[in-house]
Amino acid sequence: MSTEARPLRLGILLSGRGSNFLAIAESIRGGRLPGVEIAIVLSNVAEAAGIAAAEQIGLPHAVLVSKGRPRAEHDADLIACLREHRVDLVCLAGYMRLLSPGFIATFPNRILNIHPSLLPAFPGLDAQQQAFSYGVKVAGCTVHFVDEHLDHGAIILQRTIPVLDSDDAHALVERILAEEHIAYSEAIARVASGDYEMQGRRYVRR
Ligand code: GRF
Predict the structure, then answer these.
(1) Catalytic-role residue among 115, 144, 152, 170
(2) Which helix (H) or strand (E) holds 205?
(3) Could you read off the pLDDT of 13-37 as tens digits, one per residue?
(4) Are residues 183 and 157 in contact, defined by beta-carbon separation less than 8 angstroms?
(5) CA–CA distance from 175 to each of 84, 114, 153 (Å)?
(6) Contact (CB, 8 A) for 117 and 127
(7) CA distance 110 to 38
(8) 198 has which bridge partners?
(9) At the topology level of CATH, where does 1-107 sit?
(10) Which of 157, 180, 182 to mutate to test the pocket of ligand 1 (most atoms within 8 A of CB)?
């Protein structure tokens, strides 16, 4: 009988480019996320480049188009697919659709999201542009648990960068993205370790 622990199975949800998904996949391939595997990559958009990338690198993937469908109905299909693939941890990686309360209740403290700002500043769309226009001197990204409010759940980790006088919004987007690619794998490793406790909203490492 094997004494090895069962791997933690990720379900990646995306809608677009998929660079965060690919960074996670690369961490796994490079042995930097031991005991973690990608069970399924799901997109709600058929043309998402991230799904083409999943196919190319030979990972299980599926498209469940959400356009024109009631949220709860579409989310029920997502849940069924994630269950079928025995997903333990859902990772939103540029998933551009709000999740229903039913979906969130199905995976309590088991859904992560990455957001390209230092939350609670600049939730919502175009966070980097919001931060740039506001004139912040420090920017960054946040990986957090997902609750029923947008970009709101308990923070697992943040990575920061200085905003340089020479930056334009595009440069800032690129430099934050490089931090995102490090942050997401790090957050997954922390959650996978189970070595933390929640004190209210506070994620605290043991
Ligand atoms: C990232 O900036 C992420 O923080 C935000 O959506 C973008 C997705 O980019 N939630 P990608 O599809 O992972 O390249």
Answers:
(1) 115
(2) strand 202-205
(3) 999 999 999 999 999 999 999 999 9
(4) yes
(5) 37, 15, 24
(6) yes
(7) 15
(8) 203
(9) Rossmann fold (3.40.50)
(10) 180
